[in-house]
Amino acid sequence: MESPADIAALATLARLEATIAQRRQADPSTSYVAKLSARGTPKIAQKVGEEAVESVIAAMADDRAGLIGESADLLFHLMVLWADKGVALADVCAELDRREGTSGIAEKASRPKA
Ligand SMILES: N=c1c2ncn([C@@H]3O[C@H](COP(=O)(O)OP(=O)(O)OP(=O)(O)O)[C@@H](O)[C@H]3O)c2ncn1[C@@H]1O[C@H](COP(=O)(O)O)[C@@H](O)[C@H]1O
């Protein structure tokens, strides 16, 4: 059973997804989403990589506030990348649901040997 905080967090992601979809069509001179989207998949993907590295650096520095800020940047840019590639938040949640209850250790052990 999800807590009210869990429901609010999911609603935040759903609202951001809708905002990104809407802002992709906006004027790139007034919208970062539109400007970044117009630069194409390689630039969006580069930003995701940069924000992931910045998140790791903040974690390794024990910088909790930095980790929260960089994680927000990472999630935002990842969601811009999903929009660019036609992936929905629900698609990613469905994949997480599919994995629920399967230990990562057991899953890895069940992979066919190369
Ligand atoms: N959550 C965010 C968000 N997080 C970070 N950013 C922007 O992401 C950018 C990242 O900064 P960087 O210095 O890394 O990027 P940069 O200098 O443009 O990149 P480079 O070309 O130098 O690589 C900054 O401009 C941040 O303001 C965001 N921009 C927008 N949103 C959300 O998207 C909505 C729509 O935004 P617009 O499309 O700008 O209206 C906003 O209302 C917010 O809800």
Automatic annotation (TrEMBL):
Which pathway does it take part in? Amino-acid biosynthesis; L-histidine biosynthesis; L-histidine from 5-phospho-alpha-D-ribose 1-diphosphate: step 2/9
| Record EC number | 3.6.1.31
Main location as per UniProt: cytoplasm
Q: Which Pfam families does this entry report, sorted A to Z?
A: PRA-PH
> Which GO terms of the molecular function aspect are on file?
phosphoribosyl-ATP diphosphatase activity
Q: Note whether Oxidoreductase occurs among the keywords.
A: no
Q: What are the alphabetically sorted keywords of the record? A: Amino-acid biosynthesis, ATP-binding, Cytoplasm, Histidine biosynthesis, Hydrolase, Nucleotide-binding
Q: Where in the cell is it found?
A: Cytoplasm
Record field: catalytic activity: 1-(5-phospho-beta-D-ribosyl)-ATP + H2O = 1-(5-phospho-beta-D-ribosyl)-5'-AMP + diphosphate + H(+)
Protein family membership: Belongs to the PRA-PH family.
The record's NCBIfam families line, in alphabetical order, gives: histidine_hisI (TIGR03188), PRK00400.1-3 (NF001611), PRK00400.1-5 (NF001613)
Task: List the protein's name.
Answer: Phosphoribosyl-ATP pyrophosphatase
Organism, as annotated: Novosphingobium ovatum
Encoding gene per record: hisE
